Amino acid sequence: PEEMMKTFVSLLLFSFLLLLCSCDRDNKLVYAFASPPPCRFSLSYNVSGLLNDPAIQSRFITDVVYWEGQFHQDMVGYHAKTGLSLDGTPIDYQTGEPTGSPHLFSASSKESLHITMMALALSGDPYAQVFFSPDAPSEAPNVIIPILENKITSYEYFNSKYPGFGGYFPWYSVANGVMEPTSDFVTSTPALDNGQLIWSLYALIRIMKDTNMDKNLTQRYENQLDMMTTNALTMFYAGDGKVRAVVEIKNVTATPPLQASNYASTSPVPSYLDDPYEGELFTFYIDMFAKWPNPTEREKLWVFKRALLKSVDYNTPQGPVTLQKGWWFSAHEQWKIMVLPYLEVPICKQVFLNCEKARTAFSAVNNIPGMRASCNDVAQPGQNIPDYVSDAGIPALSFVDESRSDLYTPYGSFPLLMTSRPE
Questions:
Q1: Taking the model in full, what pTM does it have?
Q2: Got the DSSP string for 390-413?
Q3: 412 near 331, Cβ under 8 Å?
Q4: Which of 214, 335, 343, 357 has the most CB atoms in a 10 Å sphere around its CB?
Q5: Tens-digit pLDDT profile for residues 43-66
Q6: In angstroms, rounded to a whole number, what is the distance separating the alpha carbons of residues 181 and 156?
């Protein structure tokens, strides 16, 4: 229903804002930058002020957004020519300055974050506007619109050259100045990352319409979303409730209307989105928007996922809690909470709070200086990153029995920002 979709868009955007702000959203910026805040600004704050003083909270969030916004530079966090996000860039641990070459590749999951931040800024959110235009926040739309134009042009280029991808994007490279599949995704694309992107596109389009943006640009993004919606079941649904985690594409130049025979599950071992974590976003989207042959087939989506929906008990210093068992119990598994209104359902909210109580207690009890989450391995400046480490969670709370115990990452604390959501 239309009203439900409006609520979803509002909560989607609001949840992303929670990564920036845990105080009252109605607070306005309380100061303009006479000069940029120091990089290590957190040392000038104390816990009491951050907990109790709205003005200090707003100032702190503004400082956070200012420095997070420094990532949003050409050839650091995004590629200006194509408008596409980048995976990141190495930095010098001592100076904080970029060192070496940026990662000229990325994925739909990063596109999701980039698009949602732009949607937030276009909706008038003052913190998101600082992210894109710290010296003149009200000018943020003038920064964003050219990026959106270049981004959709890149999407259209890719769709034209590789119509068999059906509007879905693989891990991509911009090393040659255009959007191309990385060498390991030449004929395949993931559902999970695209499920994150598809909701961000939905929100962006709604904001573009609500703010009366250029109709042609809005329509181009609508065309992208419509293409993804139309091809979702054809490409990813394997029947009997199974959604392909990664779909293999036999002919990437196949032209519409796309045929199911052009798509297959991974081999020799097929993989499906059977998780109750961030992969659930794509499942919800096709449940709501795909054209199903009958209600029974659609219900099978949720029956198939039940096997991994398990509880686990954990004893915190404040007493035992029951929470949802994680795959690795990495913080990124809570991504779905940022996107859809799970916290509007009381039992979902309580389970989520219990997860974060356990995550926090585990670090506190074990004297761990941070939160566990899947992340890139540590490398010295100038050296190649050894690998991406998925198993950097909490084995006692997960299906995976072993985990790296020496890795912590700042983003591991992002779910905590949603545990005290402003009303």
A1: 0.91
A2: ---S-GGGBS-S---SS---GGGG
A3: yes
A4: 335
A5: 999 999 988 999 998 899 899 999
A6: 14
